[in-house]
Amino acid sequence: MTEILSQDEIDALLTAVSSGESVPADIGGIGGGGVATSSASTPVKRDKKRLKVYDFRRPDKFSKDQIRTLQMMHETFARLTTTSLSAQLRTLVHVHVVSVDQLTYEEFTRSIPSPTTMGIVNMDPLKGNAVIELDPSITFAIIDRLFGGKGESLKTNRELTDIELSVIEGILVRVLGNLRESWANVIDLRPRLGNIETNPQFAQVVPPNSMVVLTTFDTKVGDVEGMMNFCIPYITIEPIISKLSAQYWYSSIRKGISTENLSLLKEQLGEVEVEVIAKLGATELKFGEIAAIREGDIIRLDETIKQDAEVIIGSGPKFLGKPGVSGNRRAIQIREVLTTITEEVLQDILLGSED
């Protein structure tokens, strides 16, 4: 009588044939002859290393390199947020990236509490919206700190009042400013805060099965610790997906240092007020002579009237010039440059102006 083999027995038989191992004797009585003989049953190990689980309902949209680039960008965002919130709340704030994952939007909304604080963010010039979410413990700790408290969280979660919503809106706007700076090497992002939702079911920025990239931050305000999430839909970030690579990231940083940042630095320095002093001359007097000076006395200087005066900027002389009059105001005409304005001289000038 012919015995029909099960699928598991067929798989085991094929594995044994391809590897040259003995066929187990308990597979349909074949083990006694034919392919191989064995007096004892030899277990066959199936190769599972070649198997990879793939869920077609949530396909991977981002490569590992793109995930790493997003993590580097948001690590910069975390450092900036740590500094800005610490200064605003006047307490120790620590923010750092925990993970960057890709999942469906439905999985994200199911993973956060309700009620919570969800800011809908317009990602101009990118199309679509993102979501920034603050854990209730962090939200109430920030509110308590701004209202003059020690920064304690509530024991029970509740909806935010209108005043509390207005306060937390200002915090989110400030945080989004850091987001723009951290994305500057990839795109000139201009994030704007739209409305704030407390129920995740009302914040449907994309369909539930759409893929998103979720960056989770561990956030600590004083002694209160919680999570902050930043969720970006794939359809929003798709136009710049090719720029999310380590190579583009580092090349953009080098380019920014040499051109864009330098131009921005020069523009900002152009508005800095610096004290300029024209030193006509100098002399030395004894303290008794200084104490005896009266109105109308003449102090003789070491320089002659024909010598150029020193023009001092910061802590030292930078030019020589001829004193005179321009219109109704005293002036000095530059006749010689003593020091070229280099980075070291510029730093000296700025430090001198601060003093």
From TrEMBL:
Pfam families to which the protein is assigned, alphabetical: FliM (PF02154), FliMN_C (PF01052)
UniProt keyword Metal-binding present: no
An annotated GO cellular component: plasma membrane
Protein's cellular compartments: Bacterial flagellum basal body; Cell membrane
GO terms for biological process, alphabetical: bacterial-type flagellum-dependent swarming motility; positive chemotaxis
GO MF entry, a single one: cytoskeletal motor activity
Membrane topology: Peripheral membrane protein
Primary localisation category: other
Keyword Cell membrane applies: yes
Gene3D superfamilies: CheC-like, SpoA-like
Keywords: Bacterial flagellum, Cell membrane, Cell projection, Chemotaxis, Cilium, Flagellar rotation, Flagellum, Membrane
Membrane spanning residue stretches: none
SUPFAM superfamilies, per database record: CheC-like, Surface presentation of antigens (SPOA)
Domain Flagellar motor switch protein FliN-like C-terminal, residue spans: 267-338
NCBIfam families (alphabetical): fliM_switch (TIGR01397)
Family, per entry: Belongs to the FliM family.
Role according to the record: FliM is one of three proteins (FliG, FliN, FliM) that forms the rotor-mounted switch complex (C ring), located at the base of the basal body. This complex interacts with the CheY and CheZ chemotaxis proteins, in addition to contacting components of the motor that determine the direction of flagellar rotation.
Protein name listed in UniProt: Flagellar motor switch protein FliM
Organism of this sequence: Thermospira aquatica
Record gene name: fliM
